[in-house]
Amino acid sequence: MSVLATNLGFPRIGVQRELKRALETYWRGQSSKETLFAAAAQLRERHWQLQQRVGLEHIPSNDFSLYDHILDLSCMLGCIPDRYGWQGGEIDLGLYFAMARGRQGGGKDVTAMEMSKWFDTNYHYLVPEFAADQTFKLSSSKVFDEYSRARALGIKTRPVLVGPLTYVTLGKKRAEADYCRSTLIPKVVPVYVEALRKLQSLGAEWVQIDEPALVLDLRPQYREACSTAYRDIAAAVPGLKILLTTYFDGLRDNTDLAFSLPVTGVHLDLCRGPGQANTLANQADDILAAALEKAAGKVLSLGVVDGRNIWKNDLSLSLSRIERATAKLGKDHVFVAPSCSLLHTPVDLAAEQQLNPTIANWLAFATQKLTEIATLARGANRGRDVIYDELNASDAVRRHRAASPDIHNQEVKRRLASITAGMKQRHSAYAERRKLQSERFKLPPLPTTTIGSFPQTTEIRQARAAFKSGEIDSAQYRQAMQKEIRTVVDYQHRVGLDVLVHGEAERNDMVEYFGEQLAGFAFTSKGWVQSYGSRCVKPPIVFGDVSRPKPMTVAWATYAQSLTDKVVKGMLTGPITILQWSFVRDDQPRSVTSRQVALAIRDEVADLERAGIRMIQIDEAALREGLPLRRADWQAYLDNAVEDFRIASCTVADQTQIHTHMCYSEFNDIMPSIAAMDADVISIETSRSQMELLGAFIDFRYPNEIGPGVYDIHSPRVPTVDEMTALLRKARQVLSPEQLWVNPDCGLKTRGWSEVEQALVNMVEAARQVRQQV
């Protein structure tokens, strides 16, 4: 018997984003269902075979998805909202994508399911919707089909299912429902039992059940329901080995619960401890010690390879933790694994074309992490001498990185030490600023605007690619982008928007664009990570101290302002969002890196104001996403986040209006901190939730101005005037006209012009109709 090398999940998109291209070609009607399925099958099989070649003994199946694994699970469980008209039976591709993206045309018009962030990651999942009389039934064969296909290829996999506790915890009750969601867990368990029995009959020996909800604060009724559920599953499917996987934090007070469940093994994330300061100075040893006290008779899966970041593993440290576990439990009771699914990392470092070789030598993407796992398992089984060269190389990388002059900037450290309390305060309170801004801008009630970006057309992408490849020079590129800015400004004039934006044609991504111009960042050419569906992002890599060598957005903003007498917002990304959507250095606390970014953004804000930009939007789309998973850890994070925003924004005069934007978020518990940011205007995503999220601002009596989104930009469907009017009327019931702005949910980058043009016309008309009633 020996320590096994295992994996929890692999990226779906493909190293060349093959899944993205297959999906979007299908959605455009340019390929068939069969072609899409063939592309998906090719990716799955390639990834299984890769893991087999590396030497993994437990290879996951059902970790692949055409859109989202929680949507897949909703289909398996037959949890389909009534508005889709499902009558039971096979859930076809049309229904599947209608739930993900909405459906419009052919006599059908239905909204998509709500999206939210998967714990504290930048991955979006489709939120399950539960009715008061919710029932469940096995309604998809996907998990069985993929297991059977792998087995036909000679690969015996470990099927993956998100567990009942997590599924129910992350879902939402419909408005009319009045019950505790924990009561749904016993209702859904029979479907899990049916699925597990089927997998066992197909030959599965192990099944991985993901329960990341076990790292959250759980109420007693959820704990009890979880215990009962797993007792029922164990009794109903004897002989099937279940690996219960937890990740994104330690178990803490749920340690006893997790190890008391009748499962064969428990997986621990040893890379993201409670403090989350970085991946090294966490409480991994304490987490491991607590688990070893409880793990007698169970397999312990050790998540020692970071599934959320891209730095090479400290093999010596990881091996010492594995050896500690094997000494206590025996080799046959220990697995080596990534901390979580590798979904959150790019596919293969070998595909990179532009990374500095020095920095590249510090990194490991998903494919390289598989090798690290296999290496650690080999060392644990056969001794350190067997992997002597690998351990030496790992130690050398860490020494080289720590000593590198590229990561240290003494001027940045001096600025951090010189931050004063006055840098964190606006000159006057909001009530006074509001009067001055009202006199300056003279906007109508319910002013209309957008969040910032407009469609990234083929022409824009071609111009950017030509500039990067040297086919056109900087002057030609500037002319191409100015042409796009003129197009966007002219359109906004025609449609009648009150506050304009320049459209962000020059920006590849709201974080990557800034990272490219900040010192301390590095960039990849193929480092794509899935955000949702076919949407992929290429997170920058923060490897050193951060500073701003020169202005980043001033020329584009001032050019747009020169084209119009209306006010144009300057558009920036905030420090927390830049941090959250990057791969961050793990050799210092994240809070230090965030403060460095805040100072860089402060410099940009000051330059925009000096250049005559009178409104500046600093997006903190990821503020809620970055919140620690346990409430006990919230305040320290929120205090730092608020201070960083204020450092970035509080350099302007009272007459300059500061906006911010936040994505899918449950705001109720953090409203004091949002208010403490003291932005003049905040815009939030509310259309998919039918203004539900606005309730937090109402209950708190948020004093500043709010733009609740009325147009779901994550769906290709065009909302009608009546839909948006209805949402605005909901908002008007609880907000004064002086508070209310009208805007889409988010930026329009991912939408096509044909959708955007009509949607914004409808939005402006909806605002006009509601404005007449003020």
Explain this structure to me?
It is a single chain. The protein is α/β, with parallel strands linked by helices and 774 residues long. The chain has a domain at 432-771: TIM Barrel, CATH 3.20.20. The chain has 27 helices and 24 strands. An eight-stranded parallel sheet has the order 1-14-13-12-11-10-8-2. Helix 9 links the parallel strand 11 and strand 12 (265-269). Helix 7 runs parallel beside helix 8. Mean pLDDT is 93; it is low at 274-281.
Which keywords apply here?
774 residues; alpha/beta; eight-stranded parallel sheet; five-stranded parallel sheet; globular
Outline the secondary-structure elements.
Layout: E1 4-5, H1 18-27, H2 33-54, E2 59-61, H3 69-77, H4 93-101, E3 103-105, E4 108-110, E5 115-117, E6 124-126, E7 129-130, H5 142-152, E8 157-162, H6 164-170, E9 172-173, H7 185-201, E10 206-210, H8 220-236, E11 241-245, H9 255-260, E12 265-269, H10 284-294, E13 299-305, H11 315-329, E14 334-338, H12 357-360, H13 366-382, H14 388-403, H15 410-417, H16 430-441, H17 458-469, H18 474-495, H19 512-515, E15 519-522, E16 529-532, E17 535-537, E18 541-547, H20 554-562, E19 569-573, H21 575-580, E20 583-584, H22 590-610, E21 615-619, H23 634-649, E22 657-662, H24 671-677, E23 681-684, H25 694-700, E24 705-708, H26 721-732, H27 753-771
Parallel strand pairs: 1-14, 2-8, 7-9, 8-10, 10-11, 11-12, 12-13, 13-14, 18-20, 19-21, 21-22, 22-23, 23-24
Antiparallel strand pairs: 3-4, 5-6, 15-18, 16-17
Helix pairs in contact: 1-2, 7-8, 11-13, 15-22, 17-18, 22-23, 23-24, 26-27
